[in-house]
Amino acid sequence: MSERKVLNKYYPPDFDPSKIPKLKLPKDRQYVVRLMAPFNMRCKTCGEYIYKGKKFNARKETVQNESYLGLPIFRFYIKCTRCLAEITFKTDPENTDYTMEHGATRNFQAEKLLEEEEKRVQKEREDEELNNPMKVLENRTKDSKLEMEVLENLQELKDLNQRQAHVDFEAMLRQHRLSEEERQRQEQEEDERETAALVEESRKRRLLEDSDSEEDTTPTQPQPALRPNPTAILDETPKAKRKAESWERSVGALGSRPQLSGLVVKKTGLDSIIRRGRAPPLPGAMKNGQAAGPAPQMPSTSSLSQLGVYSDSEDSSGSN
User: Fold this and answer.
1) d(CA 109, CA 272)
2) 317 annotated ligand binder
3) Per the annotation, does 200 bind a ligand?
4) Gyration radius of the chain's alpha carbons
């Protein structure tokens, strides 16, 4: 069974590679590659910032008539993410970096140049010291003098500050301690006042709750029942008289008419006895100490006669 992915190619015995025609491609042909921005840059057209690491689909070409130690230099074309302006930069194999060419400015370029200058000066000094021992001694003397000057300037600045400041550090520390103690004392007093206020409030609340509970639990004293006064009948006599007088006034007004005056009849004490539910004893009713039977019922009377009975009963009660 043959392999699915064949890596070896079959070359027939009569294969001649010189007979394969070569493609005639231009030397400055371009390829589309995927790359990231090698440094921070800012577009000159719209001012958009393009940060390091932003991915682009760039066109790549080989720079003609430029090389470094036989290494080709490549140029890349990208477009701004905002205004689509074309930006170009190329490789710098001498400094192992990239060089901005057109369409944008590189950020932090001044800082980069300063670092490069420092590195160049340091490298030149090392080369001189390597070949010239006297140069080493001169450089060391210069460094020691520079260090002494720096120390002298620093001491002068310290003396100047001390003369102009006149600061008593002990007094400052003492004042700080006093202020700290005062602050702690004030905080303690405030805490004590708050605690006393809370205790007083809780005591008042407890007293109020106790008083409310005592009022709720105290039973009400029962009112003694009023006993009937035996002499209350005597006190009712003036009331009976007043009722009789009012009845007389009403009856007098009623008796002024001849057709109604005949209906009002003065009842005797018999009617009052009948109203109370007792009948007078008949002659012969009591015989041999035995009570007679119940009294016969009286026939019903009219409403006007009942009014007369009411007046007679009050008159009789008043006379009694």
Assistant:
1) 139
2) no
3) no
4) 68
